[in-house]
Design goal:
- This protein is mostly helical.
- It has one domain (54-235): Cytochrome Bc1 Complex, Chain C, CATH 1.20.810.10.
- It is 68% helix and 0% strand.
- It has 10 helices and no strands.
- It has helices spanning 10-15, 24-33, 51-54, 57-76, 86-95, 100-127, 136-157, 163-174, 183-191, 198-243.
- Helix 4 runs antiparallel to helix 6, helix 5 packs across helix 6 (100-127) and helix 7 (136-157) packs antiparallel against helix 10 (198-243).
- The longest helix has 46 residues, at 198-243.
Length: 244
């Protein structure tokens, strides 16, 4: 008796729309229809899969970003961006919330490690010369992602609302005055006034949990899409060179 496969049923065909991977053509079709596998080309050089090729720094950065999002959402349930309660909320998270201290440490260390991995990834790309044509656009997007990562760390630094965070942000925001022409305006927009206060905390909170993450995820999507296109270009060039 022939064994019935899920793919042969009506429900199975409605979900598994790609053909069974019996031939090379079917495997290619399944690859293109899979969202996660679609990130990589159909064919990849063996040396490009080796750890030493990229040190998996881009993957590590993406994993740390996912860790930051997950832990940050958990912390948002117990935090109110108000000068009268922010520090107390942090103490409550550490002492009374289930796994609060652990989740906060995960969030903090993921942020530190993400800065290191993104910077190392940029250094690795520069060292290998992967910023050259036709990857100039993706290199620019990578620089933007690095700046967004640093801004996320800077805006999150104020949220505990302790003395260290208060004075660090005061000094850091004062450096904006040295930006030519628009320094004073940038500082006023960041602080919401002349000095660090309740408006500053609210603005940093909105930037940290909404504006910067949305922009970063959007830029990351474009970065991955552009990397995918550049990989296809390299594959096509290599095949043409081999045929020649």
């Amino acid at each position: 008796m022939k064994r019935l496969k899920l793919r042969d049923t009506t429900v199975g065909r409605s979900f598994l729309r790609s053909p069974d991977r019996a031939t090379e053509r079917d495997r290619a079709a399944g690859h293109w229809s899979n969202f996660l596998l679609h990130i990589y080309p159909v064919k990849v050089r063996r040396r490009e899969l080796h750890f030493s090729f990229s040190w998996y720094l881009g993957v590590a950065s993406a994993v740390l970003l996912a860790s930051l999002v997950a832990s940050g959402i958990y912390l948002m349930f117990f935090y109110l961006p108000s000068p009268s309660s922010a520090y107390g909320d942090m103490q409550t998270i550490q002492t009374q919330v289930a796994f609060g201290q652990f989740i906060r440490n995960v969030h903090r260390w993921s942020a530190h490690l993400m800065v290191l991995t993104v910077a190392a990834h940029m250094a690795r790309v520069f060292y290998r010369g992967a910023y050259k044509a036709p990857r100039e656009a993706n290199w620019t997007i990578g620089v933007i992602l690095l700046v967004l990562t640093l801004l996320l760390s800077f805006t999150g630094y104020l949220l505990p609302w302790d003395q260290l965070a208060f004075w660090a942000v005061t000094v850091g925001s004062s450096m904006a005055d040295f930006v030519p022409f628009i320094g004073g305006s940038v500082r006023e927009v960041l602080l919401g006034g002349d000095q660090v206060g309740s408006q500053t905390l609210l603005r940093f909170y909105v930037l940290h949990v909404v504006v910067l993450p949305v922009v970063l995820v959007g830029a990351l999507a474009v970065h991955l899409w552009r990397w995918r296109k550049d990989s296809m270009f390299d594959q096509a060039a290599a095949e043409e060179g081999g045929e020649a």
